[in-house]
Write a structure and sequence with these properties.
mainly alpha; 2 domains; single chain
Length: 92
């Protein structure tokens, strides 16, 4: 009998945690456009610059590492996404 009450209590706690997490996620989604609107032109440009440098640097690093990482990169680029493949087959 002890175990069943403990599991019921744990279930109530997990339900409360799930509700709180979903409320927090919804609030964050509401705040996202406001946060993007608050960013200045130069802040947005700085974010783009950092991401560009990171992508170019990552690509150069993969080439520098040699054959195996480069093969994985090509494999990741060439493998089609399953959802897109199904959509293409339905269209044609």
């Amino acid at each position: 009998m002890y175990h069943s009450t403990r599991f019921q209590h744990a279930g109530k706690i997990s339900q409360q945690a799930t509700k709180q997490a979903s409320k927090a996620r919804k609030q964050a989604e509401k705040d996202l456009p406001a946060r993007c609107a608050q960013m200045t032109k130069y802040e947005k440009m700085w974010v783009r610059t950092k991401s560009t440098v990171a992508m170019i640097g990552g690509f150069i690093f993969i080439i520098y590492m040699g054959h195996v990482p480069l093969m994985f990169l090509i494999f990741a680029i060439q493998v089609p996404d399953c959802d897109k493949t199904e959509e293409r087959s339905l269209v044609t």
